[in-house]
TrEMBL record:
GO terms for molecular function: DNA-binding transcription factor activity; sequence-specific DNA binding. Residues 10-67 form the HTH lysR-type domain. It comes from Sphingomonas crocodyli. Keywords: DNA-binding, Transcription, Transcription regulation. Belongs to the LysR transcriptional regulatory family. GO terms for biological process: DNA-templated transcription. PANTHER family: HTH-TYPE TRANSCRIPTIONAL REGULATOR, TRANSCRIPTIONAL REGULATORY PROTEIN. InterPro entries: LysR-type_TF_proteobact-type (IPR058163), LysR_HTH_N (IPR000847), LysR_subst-bd (IPR005119), WH-like_DNA-bd_sf (IPR036388), WH_DNA-bd_sf (IPR036390). This is LysR family transcriptional regulator. Signal peptide: none annotated. PROSITE patterns: HTH_LYSR (PS50931).
């Protein structure tokens, strides 16, 4: 950046517009985030570039990308944003009574069958905290503030994130009574080659952590596939095939019969959030809720009550 820039030359609100566009990858996306029109966003970016005497964004019909000075500015602007958010949190009132919206992204099974089913636990303790749930295998960006918290099947190796383990969980094989009546009960892993399965759409899987069926059956015959674990659950209950399912989903469904109880897959849930949010009271409230949720759900997660099919 040419020349020395004084603080009174920078309009700090312009940095907010810059961050919104940089995170969205489009001027229109930034405008949507900030709830203003696109021409206002473009004008703010132009003014910031003029003040700093450098180009911050490459613009094209496909969107925008950061220049080298733009990447440097984004790093500093995010630090300023984090400090301001921390200051706002310090003055948000009684920290013992957190309030506000927290958005959490989770795998579908975790979100739909654990979080949603037990959301009353959050409201009992923190009635003024509103949870927004994104139950999907599609990745979200915490750095772009697409979510405040994320539950994941893998622990990130890098990034400015606070990460901690939530719980281990177990998957087992299940089928409906109709399926067993028509196709018989497998008595060993080798028998599975003769059966049909319900599974994910392989080429849409976002993480290798979801590819566990192939660990059991290399060449599984897939009768139905879906990116939704809820849809898979319903398909298994309909009798179309065997499902490798979360025990906390399937164990309480009397339409399903567990198969080969010694054949299991174990995985771990991790929760992560940005380091600048570790002191935010509403974030701490949701983390406390997740801890309580894991405590009450631990038997289901492990599936200790599951018995083999007769």
């Amino acid at each position: 950046m040419a020349g020395k820039i004084s603080l009174d030359q920078i309009n700090w609100d312009d940095l907010r517009y810059f961050l919104a566009v940089a995170r969205a990858g489009r001027l229109s996306g930034g405008a949507m985030t900030l709830r203003c029109n696109q021409s206002t966003v473009a004008r703010r970016i132009d003014r910031l570039e003029e003040t700093l005497n450098t180009r911050l964004l490459f613009r094209s019909t496909g969107g925008v990308s950061l220049t080298s000075p733009g990447m440097l500015l984004m790093e500093h602007a995010e630090r300023v944003e984090s400090q301001l958010l921390g200051a706002a949190e310090a003055f948000d009132g009684d920290a013992q009574h957190p309030s506000g919206v927290v958005r959490i992204a989770t795998p579908e099974a975790f979100g739909s069958f654990l979080v949603a089913r037990h959301i009353h636990l959050l409201h009992e303790s923190y009635p003024d905290v509103q949870l927004e749930l994104i139950p999907s295998a599609q990745p979200v960006s915490l750095s772009k503030r697409e979510a405040d918290l994320m539950v994941s099947l893998h622990r990130p190796e890098h990034g400015r994130l606070k990460v901690r383990k939530l719980a281990d969980y177990r998957l087992s094989l299940y089928a409906s009574r109709d399926y067993i009546a028509k196709h018989g009960t497998p008595t060993c892993v080798e028998d599975l080659q003769k059966h049909q399965f319900v599974w994910y759409i392989d080429d849409l899987l976002q993480s290798n952590e979801f590819r566990y069926l192939r660990q059991l059956v290399d060449d599984a015959q897939i009768a139905f596939s879906s990116s939704s674990i809820v849809a898979q659950h319903e398909a298994v209950t309909s009798g179309v095939g065997i499902g490798l399912m979360h025990r906390f989903m399937a164990a309480s469904d009397d339409r399903l019969i567990p198969l080969l109880p010694d054949v299991t897959i174990d995985r771990t849930y991790w929760v992560m959030y940005r380091t600048d949010q570790q002191g935010v009271s509403r974030i701490r409230a949701v983390l406390s809720f997740l801890d309580r949720l894991m405590q009450v759900s631990r038997p289901l997660l492990a599936g200790h009550e599951v018995a083999a099919a007769a």
